[in-house]
Amino acid sequence: MREITLADLDDIATGAAILGTGGGGDPHIGRLLAASAVREYGPVKLCSLDELPDGAALVQVAMMGAPTVMVEKLPSIDQVSAAAGALSGYLGSGLTHIACAEAGGVNSLIPVVAAAQLGLPLVDADGMGRAFPEIQMVLPTLYGIRATPMAIADEKGNRAVLDTVDNHWAERLARSATIDMGCSAMISSYAMTGAQARDSLVPGTLSLCAELGRLVREARAAHADPVAAVVARLGGSTLFTGKVTDVERRTVTGFARGTATLAGLDGDAGSELTLRFQNEHLVAEVDGRVRATVPDLICTLDRESGEAVTTEALRFGQRVTVIAAPADPRWHTPEGLALAGPRYFGYDLDPVGAAG
Amino acid sequence: MRIGIDVGGTNTDAVLLDGRQVLAAVKTSTTADVTSGIVAAIAGLQEQRPFDPADVRAVMIGTTHFINALVEARRLAPTAALRLSLPAGASLPPMVDWPGRLIEAVSGRGYLVHGGHEFDGRHIAELDEAEVRKAAADMGQAGVRSVAITSVFSPVNAEFEARAAEIVAAELPDAAISLSSEIGRIGLLERENATIINAALRELAAHIVDGLASSVGGAGITAPLYLSQNDGTLMDVDFARRYPVATFASGPTNSMRGAAVLSGLDTCAVVDVGGTTSDVGVLRHGFPREATTDVTVAGIRTNFRMPDVLSIGIGGGSRVREGAVGPDSVGYELTSRALVFGGDTLTATDIAVAAGRAEIGDPSLVAHLDRGLVEAALRRIADDVADVVERMRTSAEPLPVVAVGGGSVLLPDELAGAGEVRRPDHYAVANAIGAAIAQIGGEVDRVYAVEPGRRDAVVDAAKQEAVDRAVAAGASPSTVRIVDFDEVPIPYLPGNATRIRAKAVGELQLTDAKGR
């Protein structure tokens, strides 16, 4: 894929929801917004990390806040670009490329909106290779790249630039500003050079989203198994197929934590799987034994259609297949695990790998 | 006594009930004008069981008319969507994701003005009344006759929608106005879409409701007329004029509710076998389980309440081939194309007759059918329906199955994994019975800030409001109970924001001049 056209957006949205590992927000609004931007400003050039000049100046663009708010207070194209514009102004230098903070959910499509309006190429890479809930949870943090200066913009025209002592503070202050701005804001952060991007980003993730979406679509058209196609492409494994029998949710410090219980079907009949999530899925246990944890990807897919099921949409009675797939190996280093391993999320567990 | 009528695409079914006892039941053909079919149905009831029209205390009608009008894009009013959201939402204007032919069919126009609320009730911007007035004037120029008004977070606070409605009504006194806060839930585009659909159907609704009222009145019945809603509760005719969208899924809901009453089961799976499809739904406490995802209607994403129904292409009119039943059907041509009627097409009805499960048409015309073929077709139907029932089950507990609809003779007496299939008396008119026994409901669906230690008080207040709304809508207070409750914390929001949904229903309070 050399450029992103209108025709690619459905596949990217389907694939992004899968890499969202149950979180990342419903990409529907992101897809509609990207479609409006591409219709108005034309297709977006996609630039691989290999092609990126060392001296390129790129920034990440993302939506921050509650997906529930975003589907009600719809963002606009101008608001997305305003964040990148404010950061560029603070840096005092022009931007050459836009990048994605995460591969997953709505934030795989928001950068397409910024790239289209600003007329800049989009880097085919992201900071996580999946979705995570907090700003500092990106591989660039491991490389000493600062999240700030970062800009945050609301739909009313308010803009703020934060310059913080570390990336955890960026998360904390941006979260406060987001709430004041009405809980759905656009941010631009992690300004870096092309050389830094080549070191620290996960390559090829937008292409991967598009490919996953295409595999699901084609498998369905051929009456083949879309879940199997996704597992094969991600080099992962099928953990469990079952029916959701219980979902328990509670809000803890602004995040929706909860558990879902599935009763096994087919080969898993008689077994039970428990998913523990905080927006994204964090831990999967089968009959009390931990089978997969963060930072690896735990995805819930509709057993028939292969479509991702978000943690917000999990309901009694759904038939889902739970799959696990390996995260970028850098997440399994001691530093990576300190940033986004099971213990960071409050589980006294060693990470369990998911390599198929 | 009460009369229940279900106006389907093919058949108009009617029943006369005394309490829950069926006194008479008829099946007639639906007519193009709807009303003459209803007149014929009521006359049919009179023939079967003569009654004094003055003794009828309520008439309940379920109709698929409005959803058909949308799908066929006919008789839709020129409609404008007014959204109070600026400076938010400018890039995704109203009807942004609609099929072009439907935008054309409603002569759709979209207007964005300043206003709307944040999640916590703050104003995004003050409502710009001059902008609303200007938009209304432009609508008047363009010949708009119905207006859908949607404000950001109106399920939390509807004040701007109400104020904008006053301004539009002053400018366009003849226009019908629909407010999103009365129609859908959180999710602006989906709620706005449902509101625009409702607005586009308002004129047709007035026309149809008048027709229904005159056909019932023409039969000498003076009792009040009600229409059944998607959730199995009733609305009066004034409500139906204002909220036609609330009738959209009443067909399957009525069948399921009727099955509950006929079988005496209030938690079961219901299989409604019609001419073209079999619809499977699940009843919990006597009410259909609702779909939790957005529902696409005629290519438009909406988020109003619809029953969770799974359909497969198996019905009495399904074509039968070697190894396959359906999904294509001969539909309303069954009586000319099925073998038992002297036609040339092997249908599921022929299979039922050949197997001795039904007496329809001329059985000698299917006597030659190969036994193996007949059994294979019946097994295929049983397996496919069993699979759908299994998919709808939500727990390991066995769920009893109730079969209704004219085509239910196609089902075996036992389904794999589900056990015995109950086929209650009057199964063919379960939908009309469901309409007749529908109840009155009240609902709350809102985001609350739940302060520490206040959860119980907030939950109680929400439930009480649902009960109050049911009583205000005509439910008998002593019968009202909460039938559905759901609370979901919303992530990334401060103040422990929680979305609470509560639904209350009760029996319709029936009184007449004689105090009966």
Automatic annotation (TrEMBL), chain A:
Provenance organism: Nonomuraea rubra
InterPro entries reported for this sequence: S-Me-THD-like_C (IPR048350), S-Me-THD_C_sf (IPR024071), S-Me-THD_N (IPR010318), S-Me-THD_N_sf (IPR027479)
Residue stretches making up the S-Me-THD N-terminal domain: 8-163
Gene3D superfamilies per record: CV3147-like (2.40.390.10), CV3147-like domain (3.40.1610.10)
Domain of life: Bacteria
Residue span, S-Me-THD-like C-terminal domain: 166-350
Protein name per Swiss-Prot or TrEMBL: DUF917 family protein
Any Pfam family: S-Me-THD_C
TrEMBL record, chain B:
Hydantoinase A/oxoprolinase domain boundaries: 191-390
Hydantoinase/oxoprolinase N-terminal domain segment(s): 2-170
UniProt-listed Gene3D superfamilies: 3.30.420.40
Extent of the signal sequence: none
One Pfam short name: Hydantoinase_A
Stored SUPFAM superfamilies: Actin-like ATPase domain
UniProt GO MF annotations: hydrolase activity
UniProt protein name: N-methylhydantoinase A/oxoprolinase/acetone carboxylase beta subunit
Origin species: Nonomuraea rubra
